[in-house]
């Protein structure tokens, strides 16, 4: 589904990642961990084409990401739902409109999607906040809204960058349950986190693989987790 | 094509909302479009009036000539009669008529007053010559007059007609060039405003790309907004400009060229094309700016 083959990435003249190889197979659940500044976010961005590798190759859905034109890249983004740590929204739109944004930009008939949208809002527990503006949301609500926006087009892959970075334990467990549910629906999940307790909690619910970035390389984490 | 124009005008309510309403760029575009359209109306009025003037001068003066008989008083009548005979026999001359003493006095009145004693002054006899469509051979006529009427001098007005007509045509070209300059300036201003709006909305563009918006969709949202603003601004400018032209004094002999500035007949419909052209300029300028900006953001 997404494959990294000897990928390297240089940033600001220095080498951030080197010879990174990994494969996200359909329906898998991967955690990506490592110290701050190790390149977790960069690796995620390489996976969904926001960055191009300086060496090696990234393939998504059997397409070389580097060779995609801008329209093809937009199509790729519709197949990969992304949740950023800082959860950027369009602040002039209501939460419901922000969550529906992928439907809007892909030209879907909103009247036909209304039921799905309500169901999704309910699933992430934001029905009551549908008409609020993003700046009015708490950290946990923003993360859930971002997750809802990432999955509204029913993408095959969901990538989340530190989704529990700004929320308390209870909220992080709630977000984890949503991710696990998505995985059980057959979605491929890749979560970057430095929160080892989250990884341990996930291992109790679903089969996961943990990848660790260390010394510019990607390794499969061992039983210490 | 029709579908694209319809999509541009009708738009998509949801798509329109994804780009936040921007303050100063919206006002800047409206103001620039209105001001430019206002100036274009006047440049167009100037150009059309100059064109009319050039055509009228060229047409009126090209058909008329004056024959002046500078002869001693005792020979003046005989030479005038001889000149009229020559003119009657000249192909291309439609009519020739000697001006009466009263008509000549009237011509001199603006300089010497109405009480001019014409009989006591050595004023030459003037003969008005009107030519046919084909015209006459001025050089041939001069040679014949030289031989048969020694005191005759033919003035076909070309000496001063050409600079006048050239001046009027230059003025028309200047008006048209001004319209092009105004269009270029408007394109430049709208490009700047569009770039400012795109830069101010970099985060919006980032979010839209993240959720799978194609660049065409993002560009369309900006292009539509700027095109409609230019259309509205130009509409207001044209309306004000046309009122201004309409309030100008009507053409009169006394006022000369300045009072003839304006539109005549179907000419009043020409400014109505300005908002459409302004919208087209905005469409092209914003499309280019948006595509370049989005390309740079990749």
UniProtKB/TrEMBL annotation, chain A:
SMART domains: AAA. GO terms for biological process: cell division. Residues 2-225 form the ABC transporter domain. Pfam families: ABC_tran. Keywords: ATP-binding, Cell cycle, Cell division, Nucleotide-binding. Coiled coil: none annotated. PANTHER family: CELL DIVISION ATP-BINDING PROTEIN FTSE (PTHR24220:SF470), IMPORT ATP-BINDING PROTEIN (PTHR24220). This is Cell division protein FtsE.
Automatic annotation (TrEMBL), chain B:
One of its GO terms (biological process) is cell division. It is found in: Cell membrane. The keyword ATP-binding does not apply. InterPro entries: ABC3_permease_C, FtsX. Its main location: membrane. The keyword Protein biosynthesis does not apply. Residues 179-292 form the ABC3 transporter permease C-terminal domain. Keywords: Cell cycle, Cell division, Cell membrane, Membrane, Transmembrane, Transmembrane helix. It is a multi-pass membrane protein. The chain crosses the membrane at residues 28-49, 174-198, 230-251, 263-285. It comes from the Bacteria. This is Cell division protein FtsX.
